[in-house]
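Retro notes, structure queue

What went well: the backlog is down to a handful. What didn't: a couple of records were mislabeled last round, so from now on we paste the full input next to the output in the thread. Example, using Thiamine-phosphate synthase from Prochlorothrix hollandica PCC 9006 = CALU 1027:
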Amino acid sequence: MDDRQGQTQGQTQLYQPALYRILDANLDRVREGLRIIEEWCRFGLNHTDLTAECKALRQETAQWHHAALRAARDTATDPGTRLTHAQEAERSSIQQVLQANFCRVEEAMRVLEEYGKLYDGKMGSTFKQLRYRVYQLESQILSHERSQKLLRSQLYLVTSPVANLEATVEAALQGGLALVQYRAKDEDDVTRMAKATQLRELCHRYGALFIVNDRVDLALAANADGVHLGQQDVPLALARQVLGPNRLVGRSTTNPDELQRAIAEGADYVGVGPVHETPTKPGKAAAGLDYVRYAAEHCPIPWFAIGSINPTNLREVLESGGQRVAVVRSIMEADQPTLVTQYFLSQLQRH
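Corresponding output:
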């Protein structure tokens, strides 16, 4: 044995206890985090494939959790066990639980990838590949969550610039609203970004989807669940390219041709209207109930009738085949947004 080999071996023996404790702690983190995610895939999503992938990742991780690594554990003297952060005690939604545990798993896998190279040459490359699989799993679960929430949503609130914007939206969320679009045509970008961030945090606290109107860049910057595009906005394919495959992209349509084009382009949902003339779309003729009837027969993706729909004329939309509606003034200008939201939802669910 030459001097260099002896020196390397001596260093290995010196840092081996610390190395083993690092590997043991992070293997535990990965397995625990994956189990939390797996339970939601199994019982929350009832999704066999996603559950199976979580289980496979756990089992492949467990193969590296050797007895020697477990034996190095020393919880009593570990200073990390006494460190806490206020955010660790707060989880206001399933999304936050999932996001926290995905971050935990991904960070731990990165540690295993680097320190694992000192333990076994194959360990580093194995956890590099496992980490990529977790990234893909995260995207699949978030995409599935958004799609399922969209399918369950019957009422879609489009905001208007009111003085008490956040309070009005929260009141509607308290009434059961699960889908909000932030629309502000005349505000500057600094204001839009601040309000979009506040509304996104509010919506996610209530487990609701948050969509940004028109602006793909703002939707991305605010970490929104998607963007809603008008006929004159950027092509749907470009929005998808910028936002990625896991966020929602909606499109306004006013006639059957626009509807069929939106479906062909891969829209996740569409607006159908305006059913009646509306001041939010000045100069645009009403598409009428005939277009609602056409959508009811020909649209295979979620669609929302929109255009001056209120508690008085809701019934005629429902009788024309509408199952989902989008509203603006009926809630944004209501004295009691919570009660109005509950009324809309009760009628939609009953119908």
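Agreed that this is the format going forward. Reviewer comment attached to the example: The mean pLDDT is 91.
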